[in-house]
Specification:
Blueprint (H helix, E strand, L loop, with lengths): L6 E3 L2 E3 L3 E3 L15 H12 L4 E8 L19 H12 L4 E7 L13 E2 L13 E2 L2 H21 L3 E6 L4 H6 L14 H18 L6 E6 L10 H9 L7 E5 L18 H11 L3 E4 L5 H9 L5 E3 L2 H5 L3 H8 L16
Helix pairs in contact: 1-2, 2-3, 3-5, 6-7
Length: about 350
Protein backbone atom coordinates (compact mmCIF):
# COMPACT_ATOMS: atom_id res chain seq x y z
CA UNK A 1 0.00 0.00 0.00
CA UNK A 2 1.45 3.29 -1.15
CA UNK A 3 0.19 5.40 1.73
CA UNK A 4 2.27 3.36 4.19
CA UNK A 5 5.46 3.60 2.16
CA UNK A 6 8.33 5.64 3.53
CA UNK A 7 9.21 8.94 1.87
CA UNK A 8 12.59 10.63 1.97
CA UNK A 9 13.58 14.15 0.94
CA UNK A 10 16.98 15.50 1.99
CA UNK A 11 17.36 14.31 5.61
CA UNK A 12 13.61 14.15 6.22
CA UNK A 13 12.60 10.50 6.49
CA UNK A 14 8.85 9.98 6.82
CA UNK A 15 7.34 6.71 7.99
CA UNK A 16 4.44 7.08 5.57
CA UNK A 17 2.91 9.44 3.00
CA UNK A 18 0.23 11.01 5.21
CA UNK A 19 0.63 14.63 6.27
CA UNK A 20 -1.33 16.57 8.86
CA UNK A 21 -1.51 19.99 7.19
CA UNK A 22 -1.39 23.31 9.05
CA UNK A 23 -4.78 24.11 10.54
CA UNK A 24 -5.21 27.15 12.78
CA UNK A 25 -6.39 26.26 16.25
CA UNK A 26 -6.78 29.84 17.57
CA UNK A 27 -5.78 28.55 20.99
CA UNK A 28 -2.70 30.56 21.97
CA UNK A 29 -2.81 33.58 24.23
CA UNK A 30 -2.23 37.07 22.82
CA UNK A 31 1.54 36.58 23.12
CA UNK A 32 1.46 33.52 20.85
CA UNK A 33 2.92 30.91 23.21
CA UNK A 34 2.51 27.15 22.97
CA UNK A 35 0.28 25.76 25.72
CA UNK A 36 -1.02 22.38 26.92
CA UNK A 37 -3.66 22.25 24.19
CA UNK A 38 -1.04 22.40 21.43
CA UNK A 39 1.05 19.68 23.07
CA UNK A 40 -1.97 17.38 23.40
CA UNK A 41 -3.37 18.20 19.97
CA UNK A 42 -0.24 17.53 17.97
CA UNK A 43 1.19 14.71 20.08
CA UNK A 44 -2.04 12.71 19.76
CA UNK A 45 -1.65 12.79 15.97
CA UNK A 46 1.95 11.61 16.33
CA UNK A 47 0.79 8.67 18.43
CA UNK A 48 -1.86 8.13 15.75
CA UNK A 49 0.80 7.42 13.14
CA UNK A 50 0.85 10.53 10.93
CA UNK A 51 4.04 10.64 8.85
CA UNK A 52 4.51 14.41 9.03
CA UNK A 53 2.83 17.05 11.16
CA UNK A 54 3.03 20.66 9.95
CA UNK A 55 2.19 23.02 12.80
CA UNK A 56 -0.45 25.66 12.11
CA UNK A 57 0.27 29.06 10.52
CA UNK A 58 2.61 30.73 13.00
CA UNK A 59 3.00 34.49 12.93
CA UNK A 60 6.42 35.94 12.09
CA UNK A 61 5.21 39.29 13.48
CA UNK A 62 2.27 40.23 15.72
CA UNK A 63 0.34 42.07 12.99
CA UNK A 64 0.98 39.17 10.63
CA UNK A 65 -1.19 36.76 12.59
CA UNK A 66 -4.53 35.61 11.27
CA UNK A 67 -5.98 36.16 14.74
CA UNK A 68 -4.82 37.33 18.16
CA UNK A 69 -4.80 33.70 19.30
CA UNK A 70 -2.36 32.31 16.73
CA UNK A 71 0.97 30.83 17.65
CA UNK A 72 3.92 33.18 17.27
CA UNK A 73 7.56 32.90 16.27
CA UNK A 74 8.50 36.58 16.20
CA UNK A 75 10.49 36.41 19.44
CA UNK A 76 13.23 34.20 20.85
CA UNK A 77 10.91 33.79 23.83
CA UNK A 78 8.72 31.51 21.68
CA UNK A 79 11.49 28.97 21.13
CA UNK A 80 11.19 27.19 24.48
CA UNK A 81 7.51 26.29 24.00
CA UNK A 82 8.00 25.31 20.37
CA UNK A 83 10.93 23.10 21.36
CA UNK A 84 8.75 21.39 23.97
CA UNK A 85 6.16 20.70 21.27
CA UNK A 86 8.79 19.33 18.87
CA UNK A 87 10.25 17.03 21.50
CA UNK A 88 6.82 15.72 22.48
CA UNK A 89 5.93 14.83 18.88
CA UNK A 90 9.31 13.26 18.13
CA UNK A 91 8.99 10.86 21.06
CA UNK A 92 6.54 8.97 18.87
CA UNK A 93 8.75 8.75 15.77
CA UNK A 94 6.84 11.36 13.78
CA UNK A 95 8.46 14.22 11.85
CA UNK A 96 7.34 17.78 12.48
CA UNK A 97 7.49 21.04 10.56
CA UNK A 98 6.09 24.51 11.10
CA UNK A 99 4.36 26.91 8.73
CA UNK A 100 5.85 30.41 8.82
CA UNK A 101 3.16 32.93 7.97
CA UNK A 102 2.19 36.55 7.50
CA UNK A 103 -1.54 37.18 7.05
CA UNK A 104 -1.24 40.52 5.24
CA UNK A 105 -4.62 42.15 4.62
CA UNK A 106 -6.44 39.13 6.08
CA UNK A 107 -4.96 39.74 9.54
CA UNK A 108 -7.74 39.97 12.13
CA UNK A 109 -5.57 40.41 15.22
CA UNK A 110 -5.97 43.27 17.65
CA UNK A 111 -2.84 45.05 16.40
CA UNK A 112 -3.13 48.70 15.44
CA UNK A 113 -2.72 48.31 11.70
CA UNK A 114 -2.33 45.70 8.98
CA UNK A 115 -0.28 45.72 5.78
CA UNK A 116 -0.55 44.51 2.19
CA UNK A 117 1.06 45.09 -1.20
CA UNK A 118 -1.72 47.55 -2.02
CA UNK A 119 -4.23 49.44 0.18
CA UNK A 120 -7.18 47.26 -0.84
CA UNK A 121 -9.51 45.52 1.62
CA UNK A 122 -10.03 41.78 1.28
CA UNK A 123 -13.75 42.49 1.67
CA UNK A 124 -16.01 44.98 3.42
CA UNK A 125 -15.65 42.91 6.59
CA UNK A 126 -11.91 43.54 6.78
CA UNK A 127 -9.84 46.61 7.63
CA UNK A 128 -8.11 48.62 4.94
CA UNK A 129 -4.41 47.74 4.99
CA UNK A 130 -1.48 50.08 4.69
CA UNK A 131 0.51 49.71 1.48
CA UNK A 132 3.93 48.35 2.33
CA UNK A 133 6.89 50.62 1.65
CA UNK A 134 10.06 49.10 0.26
CA UNK A 135 11.55 49.43 3.75
CA UNK A 136 8.55 47.57 5.15
CA UNK A 137 9.00 44.81 2.58
CA UNK A 138 12.63 44.38 3.56
CA UNK A 139 11.68 44.24 7.23
CA UNK A 140 9.20 41.42 6.62
CA UNK A 141 11.73 39.51 4.53
CA UNK A 142 14.10 39.67 7.50
CA UNK A 143 11.30 38.58 9.83
CA UNK A 144 10.82 35.41 7.75
CA UNK A 145 14.59 34.86 7.93
CA UNK A 146 14.64 35.32 11.71
CA UNK A 147 11.65 33.00 12.09
CA UNK A 148 13.50 30.30 10.15
CA UNK A 149 16.46 30.62 12.53
CA UNK A 150 14.11 30.20 15.50
CA UNK A 151 12.38 27.21 13.88
CA UNK A 152 15.73 25.50 13.48
CA UNK A 153 16.70 26.28 17.07
CA UNK A 154 13.40 24.74 18.20
CA UNK A 155 14.32 21.54 16.36
CA UNK A 156 11.77 21.44 13.54
CA UNK A 157 12.56 19.01 10.72
CA UNK A 158 11.23 21.33 8.04
CA UNK A 159 9.62 24.71 7.50
CA UNK A 160 6.76 25.61 5.21
CA UNK A 161 6.61 29.14 3.85
CA UNK A 162 2.95 30.15 3.62
CA UNK A 163 2.40 31.56 0.15
CA UNK A 164 -1.25 30.56 -0.19
CA UNK A 165 -4.85 31.40 0.78
CA UNK A 166 -4.70 35.13 0.15
CA UNK A 167 -2.22 35.90 2.90
CA UNK A 168 0.66 38.30 2.35
CA UNK A 169 2.88 36.37 -0.07
CA UNK A 170 -0.20 35.22 -1.98
CA UNK A 171 -1.36 38.84 -2.13
CA UNK A 172 1.88 39.84 -3.81
CA UNK A 173 1.67 36.96 -6.29
CA UNK A 174 -1.87 37.61 -7.49
CA UNK A 175 -2.73 40.51 -9.82
CA UNK A 176 -6.11 40.66 -8.09
CA UNK A 177 -4.56 42.02 -4.89
CA UNK A 178 -1.26 43.46 -6.08
CA UNK A 179 -1.73 46.77 -7.90
CA UNK A 180 1.76 48.15 -7.24
CA UNK A 181 3.63 50.04 -9.94
CA UNK A 182 7.16 49.49 -8.61
CA UNK A 183 9.46 46.47 -8.92
CA UNK A 184 7.15 44.43 -6.64
CA UNK A 185 4.06 44.74 -8.86
CA UNK A 186 2.90 44.48 -12.44
CA UNK A 187 4.35 41.59 -14.42
CA UNK A 188 4.89 38.07 -13.12
CA UNK A 189 8.58 38.58 -12.40
CA UNK A 190 7.86 41.62 -10.25
CA UNK A 191 4.95 40.01 -8.40
CA UNK A 192 7.19 37.03 -7.59
CA UNK A 193 10.05 39.19 -6.33
CA UNK A 194 8.82 39.33 -2.70
CA UNK A 195 8.54 35.54 -2.47
CA UNK A 196 11.89 35.05 -4.17
CA UNK A 197 13.67 37.43 -1.82
CA UNK A 198 12.11 35.70 1.21
CA UNK A 199 13.30 32.33 -0.03
CA UNK A 200 16.77 33.67 -0.80
CA UNK A 201 17.17 34.96 2.75
CA UNK A 202 15.65 31.88 4.38
CA UNK A 203 18.03 29.65 2.40
CA UNK A 204 20.97 31.54 3.89
CA UNK A 205 20.06 30.45 7.42
CA UNK A 206 18.05 27.24 7.10
CA UNK A 207 20.26 24.10 7.23
CA UNK A 208 21.01 22.77 3.75
CA UNK A 209 20.18 19.22 4.80
CA UNK A 210 16.64 20.15 5.88
CA UNK A 211 13.92 20.62 3.23
CA UNK A 212 11.93 23.79 2.64
CA UNK A 213 8.23 23.47 1.76
CA UNK A 214 6.22 26.16 0.00
CA UNK A 215 2.42 26.36 0.26
CA UNK A 216 0.70 27.97 -2.73
CA UNK A 217 -2.77 28.64 -4.06
CA UNK A 218 -2.62 27.38 -7.62
CA UNK A 219 -5.98 28.80 -8.67
CA UNK A 220 -7.66 32.01 -7.52
CA UNK A 221 -10.97 30.78 -9.01
CA UNK A 222 -11.55 34.30 -10.37
CA UNK A 223 -11.08 35.58 -13.91
CA UNK A 224 -7.88 37.58 -14.16
CA UNK A 225 -6.29 35.77 -11.23
CA UNK A 226 -3.75 32.98 -11.00
CA UNK A 227 -4.42 29.52 -12.43
CA UNK A 228 -2.24 26.41 -12.33
CA UNK A 229 -0.44 27.40 -15.53
CA UNK A 230 0.50 30.79 -14.10
CA UNK A 231 1.49 29.23 -10.79
CA UNK A 232 3.80 26.78 -12.55
CA UNK A 233 5.56 29.73 -14.18
CA UNK A 234 5.87 31.46 -10.81
CA UNK A 235 7.30 28.34 -9.22
CA UNK A 236 9.73 27.87 -12.07
CA UNK A 237 11.50 31.05 -10.97
CA UNK A 238 11.88 29.93 -7.33
CA UNK A 239 12.22 26.15 -7.63
CA UNK A 240 15.95 26.28 -6.82
CA UNK A 241 15.06 27.54 -3.33
CA UNK A 242 12.41 24.96 -2.40
CA UNK A 243 12.14 21.19 -2.13
CA UNK A 244 8.42 20.46 -2.22
CA UNK A 245 5.23 22.36 -3.09
CA UNK A 246 2.08 22.05 -0.97
CA UNK A 247 -0.74 22.85 -3.38
CA UNK A 248 -4.01 24.52 -2.40
CA UNK A 249 -6.35 26.90 -4.23
CA UNK A 250 -8.37 30.02 -3.49
CA UNK A 251 -8.39 32.58 -0.72
CA UNK A 252 -6.98 35.69 -2.34
CA UNK A 253 -10.35 37.34 -2.91
CA UNK A 254 -14.01 36.48 -2.30
CA UNK A 255 -15.26 34.26 -5.11
CA UNK A 256 -18.58 35.17 -6.72
CA UNK A 257 -20.92 32.28 -6.01
CA UNK A 258 -19.09 29.36 -4.47
CA UNK A 259 -16.06 27.25 -5.31
CA UNK A 260 -17.16 23.76 -6.32
CA UNK A 261 -15.47 21.46 -3.83
CA UNK A 262 -15.40 17.67 -3.64
CA UNK A 263 -12.95 15.06 -2.32
CA UNK A 264 -9.68 15.66 -4.14
CA UNK A 265 -10.78 18.87 -5.87
CA UNK A 266 -7.24 20.26 -5.81
CA UNK A 267 -5.39 17.14 -6.97
CA UNK A 268 -5.23 18.22 -10.62
CA UNK A 269 -3.31 21.37 -9.69
CA UNK A 270 -0.77 19.41 -7.64
CA UNK A 271 -0.44 16.85 -10.43
CA UNK A 272 0.15 19.52 -13.08
CA UNK A 273 2.82 21.30 -11.02
CA UNK A 274 4.54 18.00 -10.18
CA UNK A 275 4.72 16.92 -13.82
CA UNK A 276 5.46 20.33 -15.32
CA UNK A 277 8.34 21.19 -12.96
CA UNK A 278 9.42 17.69 -11.95
CA UNK A 279 9.15 18.72 -8.31
CA UNK A 280 7.57 16.82 -5.41
CA UNK A 281 4.11 17.95 -4.35
CA UNK A 282 1.63 17.54 -1.52
CA UNK A 283 -2.05 17.52 -2.40
CA UNK A 284 -4.85 18.46 -0.03
CA UNK A 285 -8.58 19.09 -0.10
CA UNK A 286 -11.42 17.09 1.50
CA UNK A 287 -9.44 13.84 1.17
CA UNK A 288 -10.15 11.37 3.94
CA UNK A 289 -10.66 7.87 2.52
CA UNK A 290 -8.08 5.23 1.73
CA UNK A 291 -9.21 4.58 -1.84
CA UNK A 292 -8.71 8.17 -2.94
CA UNK A 293 -5.38 8.47 -1.11
CA UNK A 294 -4.13 5.29 -2.73
CA UNK A 295 -5.31 6.35 -6.20
CA UNK A 296 -3.44 9.65 -5.93
CA UNK A 297 -0.21 8.06 -4.77
CA UNK A 298 -0.31 4.96 -6.97
CA UNK A 299 -0.89 7.08 -10.07
CA UNK A 300 1.96 9.43 -9.06
CA UNK A 301 -0.33 12.46 -8.99
CA UNK A 302 1.35 13.72 -5.82
CA UNK A 303 4.06 12.49 -3.50
CA UNK A 304 2.30 13.10 -0.19
CA UNK A 305 -1.35 13.48 0.79
CA UNK A 306 -2.48 15.93 3.46
CA UNK A 307 -5.60 14.99 5.40
CA UNK A 308 -6.98 17.90 7.41
CA UNK A 309 -10.57 17.52 8.55
CA UNK A 310 -10.30 13.74 8.58
CA UNK A 311 -7.41 13.83 11.04
CA UNK A 312 -9.16 16.44 13.16
CA UNK A 313 -12.06 14.00 13.48
CA UNK A 314 -9.85 10.97 13.94
CA UNK A 315 -6.32 11.46 15.33
CA UNK A 316 -5.71 7.76 14.64
CA UNK A 317 -6.70 7.85 10.96
CA UNK A 318 -3.48 6.12 9.88
CA UNK A 319 -3.73 3.36 12.48
CA UNK A 320 -7.45 2.77 11.95
CA UNK A 321 -7.06 2.66 8.16
CA UNK A 322 -4.17 0.23 8.46
CA UNK A 323 -6.26 -1.95 10.80
CA UNK A 324 -9.16 -2.02 8.32
CA UNK A 325 -6.68 -3.22 5.68
CA UNK A 326 -5.32 -5.91 8.03
CA UNK A 327 -1.85 -4.37 8.24
CA UNK A 328 0.32 -5.70 11.07
CA UNK A 329 3.18 -4.42 13.20
CA UNK A 330 2.83 -0.64 12.86
CA UNK A 331 0.95 0.10 16.08
CA UNK A 332 2.33 1.72 19.24
CA UNK A 333 3.05 -1.00 21.80
CA UNK A 334 0.58 0.59 24.22
CA UNK A 335 -2.25 0.14 21.69
CA UNK A 336 -1.41 -3.23 20.07
CA UNK A 337 -4.23 -5.07 21.85
CA UNK A 338 -6.78 -2.76 20.17
CA UNK A 339 -5.66 -3.80 16.69
CA UNK A 340 -5.38 -7.57 17.04
Amino acid sequence: MKFLEEYNIKNLNLNNRIVMPPMCMYSANNEGYVNDFHITHYTSRAIGGVGLIIVEATGITPNGRISSNDLGIWSDDHIEGLKKLVNSVKKYDTSIGIQLAHAGRKCESDDNYIVAPSPIRYSEDYREPRELSKEGIKEIINQFKDAAIRADRAGFDTIEIHGAHGYLISEFLSPLSNKREDEYGGNRENRTRFLKEILEEVNKVWPKEKPIFLRVSADDHIEGGIDKYEMAKILESVEDYIDIVHVSTGGVAPVPGKIYTYPGYQVSQAEYIKKELDIPTITVGLIDNFELVEEILANDRADLVAIGRGILRDPYWVLNTAHELDVKNIYPKQYVRAFR
